[in-house]
Design goal:
Blueprint (H helix, E strand, L loop, with lengths): L5 H8 L4 H10 L7 H11 L2 H8 L3 H15 L4 H15 L3 H10 L2 H10 L8 H4 L1
Helix pairs in contact: 3-6, 5-8, 6-8
């Protein structure tokens, strides 16, 4: 899995996002959509991740998404790991309840990347704020 091909890998791994990906791609017309923009738009601007994790009603898709994230976390390409951390996992820290639900589906390396964010984003509990 490489950063250069990550946009096309996304649609093949999670076809449920095809329509959202096409909307973003069409907006950019003939330019290649920067991966950080595509991932942030597809996963967060349309509230896909928040709806998925808030409702927790489609466990099969949740697992598919987090399996893909784990593939990204295990990539030898540092840019792919950075994309996961900055354009996906960092947004989960906006809502600690959603983050807590996400933790249930994260695999080992994805969780480690998420946990690294705690040091500079915000504490996970009220006690940590003291």
């Amino acid at each position: 899995m490489t950063y250069e091909h990550i946009n096309s890998i996304l649609v093949s791994k999670i076809p449920e996002l095809k329509e959202s990906i096409e909307e973003v791609t069409n907006y950019w017309k003939h330019e290649r959509v920067p991966s950080h923009v595509l991932f942030a738009e597809v996963f967060y601007q349309n509230s896909f991740m928040y709806n998925l994790l808030s409702e927790e009603c489609n466990i099969a898709i949740i697992r598919k998404v987090f399996d893909f994230f784990e593939d990204m976390a295990n990539s030898n390409d540092a840019e792919v790991r950075n994309l996961l951390q900055v354009s996906i996992l960092e947004y989960l820290w906006d809502d600690l309840e959603v983050l807590s639900r996400a933790h249930k589906y994260m695999h080992t390396k994805t969780r480690a990347l998420s946990d690294e964010l705690q040091t500079y984003l915000k504490p996970s509990t009220v006690e940590d704020m003291a």
